[in-house]
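queue> holo job accepted (adenosine monophosphate)
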Amino acid sequence: MNIILFGPPGAGKGTQAKLLQNEYNIPHLSTGDIFRSAIKNKTPLGVKVKSILDAGELVPDETVVDLVAAELSREKYQDGYILDGFPRTVAQAEAFDKFLDENDDSLDAFISLSVPEEELIKRILSRGEGRSDDTEEKIKTRLEVYRKETKPVMDYYKKQDKVQEIDGLGSIDEILERIKSALN
Ligand code: AMP
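queue> job finished
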């Protein structure tokens, strides 16, 4: 099963992706986690993307698409995966469709978590993960980037009739149950 978990920053994608990974026994791929780990380890990729993440902007499409294609070609993803934080632009979504096509594969579900903006800001400021982009100013930039660049991705998948919108307000367990019933 190939799933995209979609939503604005702070919607709970990472939390839910980890729970779904255990529930369905399919690996979770977070592009944000890969970038943060590359930055921490000062790899060439990390050096390249650090200032972009710090600013709350998007890493160039080509870099992200190449990374995801290489990652998804690994053995551990062959029985399915949960994508968190990708695709984030329409160009990435188109490239991902091409990748699926070339691999005779397809997308099974596009789950979008909806959460009002005031709640997103509150959640990010209180999650205390120590992320350099979790400051009030950077959150504003990230939400702006989400509205302009990422939200259109949902319309892209709506045209394919793939989008299931889930209410992202409530307890972690309640939201997990909603996602599970959407998937079943
Ligand atoms: P996240 O952990 O998903 O919030 O991602 C953190 C940051 O990593 C984002 O603000 C971007 O700078 C970068 N990033 C993660 N995924 C992508 C993507 N698919 N396209 C471009 N930039 C990304």
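queue> The pocket of adenosine monophosphate is lined by residues 9, 31-32, 35, 52-53, 56-59, 64, 85-86, 88, 92, 133, 142 (CB under 6 Å).
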